[in-house]
Write the structure tokens for this entry.
Amino acid sequence: VKEEDLIAYLLSQKGQKALDEGIGDDCAILVGKGGYTLLTTDALVEGVHFDRRYFSAYFLGRKLAVVNLSDMAAMGGCPQAALLTLGLPSPPEPAWVQEFFQGLLSRLGEFGAKLVGGDTVRNPGGIFLNLSLVGHATWAPVRRDKARPGEIIFVSRPLGASAAALELLQKGVSCPDPLIQAHLDPEPELLLGQALAQKQLISALIDISDGLALDLKRLCRASGVGAILFEESIPFHPLLSGLSLEAPPLHYALFGGEDYALLFTSPPASQDQLTNLTSSLGRILFPVGRICAETGLWLKTRHGDQIPLDAKGFDHFAFGHKPSS
Amino acid sequence: VKEEDLIAYLLSQKGQKALDEGIGDDCAILVGKGGYTLLTTDALVEGVHFDRRYFSAYFLGRKLAVVNLSDMAAMGGCPQAALLTLGLPSPPEPAWVQEFFQGLLSRLGEFGAKLVGGDTVRNPGGIFLNLSLVGHATWAPVRRDKARPGEIIFVSRPLGASAAALELLQKGVSCPDPLIQAHLDPEPELLLGQALAQKQLISALIDISDGLALDLKRLCRASGVGAILFEESIPFHPLLSGLSLEAPPLHYALFGGEDYALLFTSPPASQDQLTNLTSSLGRILFPVGRICAETGLWLKTRHGDQIPLDAKGFDHFAFGHKPSS
């Protein structure tokens, strides 16, 4: 049973309407008098998402915030309030708890969100962290289901650093600080997501939590389209080239996950305005491919071949028991 | 580290305002244009809150809904949307998942709430279920911090059935169906909570999740008051008298927990209106004591003694490792 199957089951139930409510998107959407309310929830589990050998309480707090803030960014919403469920295997060290809260509150506060409630429980198997995040938007949130053939596919920054760092951290070998930071303390793209949504220059938006290939596949499936990625255009972190990794850098950029970059589509006619907007934010975008009508995912290699891309990515049950991204 | 300590720490952080936001109450409160938004979250963990020997997937789904719906009832709010985090130790049986969702959706739907999103993760130690519930109210939510000396303390129904059933279920001995139902499928008091909040006849409101004594202590501490309970007035489920239990029925009513009855305070001057309101709902209320100015909790026994009441109740870390209420 995969998350997609559960969502499909859920949508088959009476009274559930996917399109109005963002079910299966990065956030659920409630339409109210003062605009849109956005809801998301994400968990981090010890031994599955992290290992305490390399993850301190402070950075766990920050990352728990970021994985949820990134879902808010992926709708173009503004974070507002959070609820924490803290599951701990045994009575916790006060210092651990304090550092965890410092991390969590620092990241939430940076983007205007407050921790307003929660639950603390014992979880015999290890640390289980869950955050639910409520946000709002006065503009229409950007869903993942409106990509159209001919549109350009963008990512908001180079990919692969987080997954490469995870490999090195798990091996216990040295890893450059910028890569470690990409894994322990990634940057959520809230300002960019909000600007893109507000200006209505993009058609579909998602964040890359499980790898470019898998998250693009999700965007395409929701939109009923396909996509071609151009190998030469896919940006990966420059430090990846000099490292001794198990796979080439492109692998981490396509399949690594936990990048928390934004992935979105935009019509060719909007390109000038899009460039103006991102320049004004001091950002550059990376065009990585094109949406096509035929469903499926392809990689156009640097040699000009077009090969089907198997959208591997992180699935908790498909990937077995090793700690993974 | 208890939940109360974490809340106290949280409130000590910059930018956190307890009174406006309901932090530490059954729900957090966000004030918006269209009224009040209410937020709550609650988890159920295998081996801590339940045991699969006696808890089916269907009733787990229903109970996960109820523990959160009861927090909404305890503010007088109307449930609207829920987010589920489903942590499972191994690839789940499709039948188990389907029955769990049937239970969850049936209880949420009964009270007008939809499941709009969630996260599925692997949790090596066992099943970890978390629900976050969003609700609203056009009237002011009732907090737990406004009880005043001289007010009457009420509970909304007889207590102790859930805790007594848990004891028998854990022993594997037979238990009357109404008691089993009180533990597996308790009734959240949403209609009563909403009516009490809307009519403004009560001063402080909480639900009994960890036992009358402990939840009354919480209400008193938040309000800066004390309370006297009258032994002869405390209602317990009539079936408790005929059972072979480890403690007398009063013990389960005072300390048992998981009743999900409402506990509230009301000024003497409001009693006629309160009686009219509850009659119109076909309900009766149980006056169990009085709020006093001196902080502390006392039991006035049937012999006329007034003894200090040690507010035992469920604390995950204080109670050690046995599955408990």
Q: What stands out?
A: Residues 314-325 of chain B have pLDDT under 50 and may be disordered. Chain B touches chain A through 67 residues (CB under 8 Å). Chain B has ten helices and twelve strands. The radius of gyration of chain B is 19 Å.
